[in-house]
Design brief:
The structure holds 4 protein chains of 4 kinds. Chain A is mostly helical. Chain A has a single domain, classed as Non-ribosomal Peptide Synthetase Peptidyl Carrier Protein, Chain A (Orthogonal Bundle). Helix content of chain A is about 55%, strand content about 0%. Chain A contains 4 helices and no strands. Chain B starts with 8 loop residues before the first strand and ends in a 9-residue tail after the last helix. In chain B, about 55% of the residues are buried. Chain B folds into 2 domains: about 10-190, Rossmann fold (3-Layer(aba) Sandwich), CATH 3.40.50.970; about 205-330, Rossmann fold, CATH 3.40.50. Chain B is globular. A 7-stranded mixed beta sheet of chain B has the order 3-2-4-5-7-6-12, with helices on both faces. Chain C is an alpha/beta fold. In chain C, the strands form 2 sheets. Chain C has a 5-stranded parallel beta sheet, with helices on both faces. The chains are: A mainly alpha, B alpha/beta, C alpha/beta, D alpha+beta. Chains B and C meet through α3, α5 and α6 of B and α5 and α6 of C.
Chain lengths: ~80, ~350, ~325, ~450
């Protein structure tokens, strides 16, 4: 499944009210979708279940936008 | 007679009622006035002053001091096809005629299976505040409003003094008009033509959003003053003038309570087993879920009205007591206010 | 006292027998629980109502008391309607709402029974006042017991009628007992006619057991009233043979007195006089009784067949127009 | 004697209130002839002894009830042979039930006259009473297919009024009071059309029944209940806050908290814990607030009837903003006894349940102090409004890097910082007490909590 779609699916799981089809992929999606730290951990958990990738706290700055997150996943997933 | 004036006339309560009786007697010769000293003396409160000269002793009939007989005679004359106006000098003396009012006037239509009606108007003076002491200061509206078969109205504005008599005379059933003595001398605006308001309709005299002051007759002016004082404290009180005590205009009362969610009933009668209790019960039954505070009641203290001025004023419903009751209801800590 | 012609006597006799048998049938119906509440019977006093009412014009008004079955029947209220009213049925003359003590009939200007002692007196005065003011020449006859003479309403009404010269015929049925209180234990002055003369109106005592004496006095009194000179008063001395109502132990009078008065039975007084004058055969009275019984029995059947009013119209006749809404009552009558 | 047609002579009713009578004395015997009006028996009633007469001449056939016997009115007491059987068709008078309950008369069934004689059953749903038909029109209710709740399916006034009443929700005045006092939000009762005081009192004990069973409800209905829930929640919050603002004399304090030590230990702990057990800074702050409240008991309790009432446990009200709008304030009980990990578990569970509307009753008990936090992305500082009847509210702004002076005051350094505020009820506490709570949090974040995080790091 396309990495970006994985991120969107994770967001929808935690915040069903967010319309991922119109969510810009090049902005801080936590800001855009008003996701707090609890939501964010929920998203990381969902992504981990879907892809097995576990993002450490230190890497949070690398996954600010959906595009970054997707890129991060493809690079780590492959490894 | 000149052309009909457009702007309202200024009249006193007695002038307004006199104009109403005069108009009725000129228009219908079935109408006549009967009561103690209504003729030569001109009426104990000078309401019928001058009418003897225009209509003569046959139709302006002074009676002996026999309340049961002349009220009973009024009932009989009405059953016999006339449209009498019987004046009982004050509500205090009406107790002597209560048997005729209850057991004949109110019951005749029902007992006779609908064959006989009693199209009679009884006018009487009510209320205290004029240092007439215990036997001349009663407010017994609630007693009469308890009786099915008669209608009870209480004019609180001079306009109602002028225009309530017409529909009362036209009513096929007995109507008792309780005129608060304090309003005879008060003056107010009267519309030149009949506004045609149904007898049993209550009227909101002052719109408001925070609390409803439900009252009638002599205490209407007191409530309007209280509303003005409350407005200075940022509380907008709505003043509902019942006008009719039987039947009660539940719809208007409940609409008001639905707007304000708080109500104070102001009644010059005594509190226990009184009209204010009936109105409070109806608000509880029909507007329970609108209430944010218990319905308050401001009534005359349960004492035979004393002669001394300061005692009498302390006993009667006053602006201060109404404002206090309203404030108590407003701040939500309203306990059963025994004002 | 002049005697009446045979035809009038026969009519008066039939009327008295009719009232007597009607009242006795009511007593039986009461025992069978067909008639309920209070029931006050006129047995023994028939001559009073028969003598006066026969002289009234159809357009005259009559105001009675709770002992008014005879007055209603004699004023023309149909027997069926009176009996149906006693049964509380829809076809009763008051629609089943009044019962024995509150018979009413607008068509015959019968302004009812009245269960308040003296309660009807001011009403009668008012009816007469209306007639006077409207210029109508008719009389209002008002019947009441001597007990009412102790009520303030009697004094006020008599005074007002006399003061304003109103066309009222006051008929006091003095049967000597106000329920259980004898006249001399109630009135300082027991000569009632004498007392009433103080109001400035003509007043006569009359032997209320002799229907011809009643007729004679009533003619004079009615002539006086119709002349416009004001009211008149008849003290009709009579006696009730049965209890005040159903039933009282009659401890207030002794049996001997009742038996003695029964020897003055108004029906037999007239019947014996007619037999003596050859106007009545030995079996005629029995024949009249049977004919009357059959009419009364038809009225019982009529009453029994008349339906009871449905509760959904309970609130009718309180006011002329629509009944005022009564929340809790509707639950019952819905 | 051939009994041609005998008739029964029944115990007569001798008064409006008489149900039964006792035979005192028979004055006649079988075979005697009696005349109309003749007294034949003495009967005793409550009032007195009454002489009873016969109304037809007849011959006594048989005495059925002896002297001294008490029998109900209507009971045959003798049999008679009337002189003229046909004269008066005296029908056999069956025993009448006591006068008072005379229901059906023994007469032939009354014809069903138009006036609606007895026994006219109205079919279910049909409105017979004119008064009710008039009311139905007035309230625009179609009276034809109303369900009748009255006897025999008869439509009664309440049925008409219920049909007319919008499906809106009714909360009794008493219920409103209890909700405010127990800090319960109205939408906890979203599924009820009538909420009484009893419902509110029952709420904590019973499992909260606020599952809107969203799944089964049709979408529009879900949206509708959602909308009414929103409205009532907004109304409740409005009522609560305006009452608080009107009644409680607030004072406010603010203090910057240095999180550098705490977050450093948190990061270390999270590194060695699986993703699912990762702890967010917010959990630390809640622990700090709860433990500080234990150390400053004057801020942990309620203001009732003019005086302070302390709580013996620290039950932390947590202001949670719902994604669908509005806030809900579940309670974390004994929050001061929770480790950061336990607090994180509680928060995760609470947020999940709150958002699905399945909070447990324990979550909705009475809080003793409340915390409101805008999360990482909120404003710098939130100055809150106390939830009556509590006496304190702690507010946390967003965690941000801010400039701090070096410890020795020579230079500056950037550290993760949060602005903590305290809203205090001046009736219960003074500023000096309130500020002690804030300073306690700083020492907890620099001392006890980091140590516990280290201990965790070693654990699972």
């Amino acid at each position: 499944m396309d990495a970006r779609e994985t991120v969107f699916a994770a967001i929808r799981k935690v915040a069903p009210d967010v319309d991922t089809t119109t969510l810009p992929t090049d902005v801080d999606f936590r800001e855009e979708a008003e996701l707090d730290s609890m939501d964010f951990i929920g998203i990381l958990t969902a992504v981990h279940e879907a892809t097995g990738v576990e993002v450490p706290e230190t890497d949070y700055p690398l996954i600010t936008t959906v595009d970054d997150f997707a890129g991060y996943l493809t690079s780590h997933h492959a490894a | 007679m000149n052309t009909t004036q457009v702007e309202p006339l200024l009249m006193t309560g007695r002038e307004a009622m006199r104009a109403a009786m005069t108009e009725a007697m000129r228009a219908d010769d079935r109408v006549f006035l009967m009561g103690e000293d209504v003729g030569r003396y001109g009426g104990c409160f000078a309401v019928s002053m001058g009418m003897l000269e225009e209509f003569g002793p046959e139709r302006i009939r002074d009676t002996p001091l026999s309340e049961s007989a002349f009220v009973g005679a009024g009932i009989g004359a009405a059953a016999g096809g006339m449209r009498p106006i019987v004046e009982i000098m004050t509500v205090n003396f009406s107790l002597l005629a209560l048997d005729q009012i209850m057991n004949t006037a109110a019951s005749l239509r029902h007992m006779s299976g609908g064959q006989f009606g009693v199209p009679l108007v009884i006018r009487t003076t009510t209320g205290g505040g004029r240092q007439l002491a215990a036997q001349h200061s009663h407010s017994l509206d609630g007693w009469y409003a308890h009786i099915p078969g008669i209608k009870i109205v209480a004019p609180g504005t001079i306009d109602d003094f002028r225009w309530m008599l017409g529909p009362a005379l036209a009513d096929p059933d007995p109507v008792i008009i309780f005129e608060n003595g304090a309003l005879y001398g008060a003056s107010g605006e009267v519309s030149p033509t009949d506004p045609g308001i149904p007898l049993e309709r209550a009227i909101v005299r002052r719109a408001g959003t925070d609390i409803s002051l439900v009252t009638f007759g002599g205490t209407l002016p007191t409530c309007l003053d209280a509303a003005a004082t409350l407005a200075e404290r940022g509380i907008e009180a709505e003043v509902v003038d019942l006008r009719s005590l039987r039947p009660l205009d539940d719809a208007t009362i409940m609409d008001s309570v639905a707007r304000t969610h708080r109500a104070i009933v102001v009644d010059e009668g005594w509190r226990s087993v009184g009209l204010s209790g009936e109105i409070s019960a109806r608000i509880m039954e029909q507007a329970f879920y609108e209430l944010d505070a218990p319905v308050g009641r401001v009534c005359t203290a349960e004492v035979p009205l004393p002669y001394a001025h300061q005692l009498e004023q302390a006993a009667l419903p006053s602006v201060e007591r109404i404002v206090d009751a309203a404030m108590a209801a407003m701040d939500g800590t309203a306990l059963a206010v025994a004002s | 006292m002049k005697h009446l012609d045979p035809d009038t006597r026969r009519r008066l006799l039939r009327d008295m027998v009719f009232v007597r048998r009607f009242e006795e049938r009511c007593a039986q119906l009461y025992q069978q629980t067909k008639i309920r509440g209070f029931l006050h019977l006129y047995v023994g006093e028939e001559a009073v109502a028969t003598g006066v009412i026969r002289l009234l014009e159809p357009d005259d008004a009559l105001v009675g008391t709770y002992r008014e079955h005879g007055h209603a029947l004699l004023k023309g209220v149909p027997t069926d309607a009176v009996m149906a009213e006693m049964f509380g049925r829809v076809d009763g003359c008051s629609g089943g709402r009044g019962g024995s003590m509150h018979l009413f009939d607008a068509e015959h200007r019968f302004y009812g029974g009245n269960a308040i002692v003296g309660g009807g007196l001011p009403l009668a005065v008012g009816l007469a006042l209306a007639d006077k003011l409207a210029g109508r020449d008719r009389v209002t006859a008002c019947f009441f017991g001597e007990g009412a003479m102790a009520e303030g309403e009697f004094h006020e009404s008599a005074n007002l009628a006399a003061l304003w010269d109103l066309p009222v015929l006051f008929c006091c049925e003095n049967n000597r007992y106000a329920m259980g209180t004898a006249l001399d234990r109630s009135e300082a002055e027991t000569d009632l006619a004498l007392r009433v003369s103080g109001y400035g109106m003509p007043a006569w005592p009359v032997d209320g057991m002799d229907v011809e004496a009643v007729t004679d006095a009533a003619e004079r009194a009615l002539a006086s009233v119709r002349s416009g000179t004001g009211p008149a008063f008849l003290e009709l001395r009579t006696y009730r043979f049965r209890a005040h109502s159903m039933y009282d132990p009659e401890l207030y009078r002794d049996k001997a007195e009742v038996t003695e008065w029964k020897t003055h039975d108004p029906i037999h007084l007239l019947a014996d006089r007619m037999i003596a004058d050859g106007q009545l055969g030995p079996d005629d009275l029995a024949a009249i009784e049977q004919e009357v019984d059959e009419e009364i029995e038809r009225s019982v059947e009529f009453a029994d067949a008349s339906p009871e009013e449905g509760v959904e119209t309970l609130l009718r006749h309180v006011y002329a127009e629509a009944p005022e809404p009564q929340r809790d009552i509707e639950e019952v009558s819905a | 004697m051939t009994t041609s047609t005998t008739t029964a002579f029944a115990m007569p009713s001798l008064g409006a209130d008489m149900d039964e009578g006792r035979i005192v004395e028979w004055l006649v015997a079988p075979g005697d002839h009696v005349e109309r009006g003749q007294i034949v028996v003495i009967v005793q009633t409550e009032k007195s002894d009454i002489e009873v007469e016969v109304f037809e001449s007849a011959t006594v056939d048989e005495i059925l009830v002896g002297e001294g016997e008490l029998v109900p009115v209507g009971t045959p007491i003798a049999r008679m042979v009337p002189d003229h059987p046909s004269a008066a068709p005296v029908e056999e008078s069956e025993p009448e039930p006591a006068a008072a309950e005379t229901a059906a008369s023994s007469a032939p069934a009354a014809p069903a006259a138009a006036a609606g004689g007895p026994g006219v059953e109205s079919e279910a749903g049909h409105v017979t009473s004119p008064v009710l038909r008039h009311l139905a029109e007035e309230l625009h209710v179609d009276a034809t297919h109303l369900h009748g709740s009255g006897p025999g399916g008869r439509v009664v006034r309440a049925d008409v009024e219920r049909a007319a009443r919008p499906a809106g929700r009714r909360i009794t005045p008493r219920a409103r009071r209890l909700m405010v006092e127990r800090n319960l939000a109205p939408e906890r009762f979203a599924d009820r059309s009538l909420v009484t005081g009893a419902d509110v009192l029952a709420a904590p004990a019973a499992a909260p029944s606020i599952e809107p069973s969203a799944s089964e409800a049709a979408p529009e209905q879900r949206a509708a209940t959602e909308r009414t829930r929103q409205e009532s929640m907004r109304r409740h919050i409005a009522e609560l806050m305006s009452r608080s603002w009107r009644e409680i004399p607030h004072y406010h304090l603010a203090q910057r908290l240095d999180l550098s030590v705490a977050l450093e230990h948190l990061g270390a702990a999270n590194e060695r814990r699986p993703l699912a057990d990762r702890i967010v800074p917010g959990a630390l702050l809640l622990c700090a607030a709860a433990r500080a409240a234990r150390k400053v008991p004057q801020c942990n309790g309620w203001w009732h009837g003019g005086r302070f009432e302390g709580s013996d446990t620290v039950d932390l009200g947590l202001v949670l903003s719902l994604r669908s709008g509005g806030v809900i304030v579940p309670t974390i009980q004994r929050a001061d006894e929770l480790s950061p990990a336990e607090m994180m578990e509680r928060m995760t569970e609470l947020v999940q349940r709150a958002r699905q509307g399945r909070l447990r009753s324990s979550h909705l008990g009475e809080a003793s102090i409340t915390v409101t936090s805008l999360g990482e992305r909120g404003a710098d500082e939130v100055i809150g409004v106390i939830h009556p009847p509590q006496v304190a509210l702690v507010g946390f702004g967003a965690v941000r890097n801010e400039v701090w002076p070096e410890a020795d005051g020579t230079g500056i350094v950037v550290r993760p910082t949060v602005h903590a505020t305290l809203a205090g009820d001046h009736r219960a506490t003074d500023g000096v007490v309130g500020s002690r709570l804030l300073t306690q949090m700083q020492s907890l974040l620099d001392g006890a909590l980091p140590d516990e995080l280290d201990a965790l790091a070693g654990g699972t």
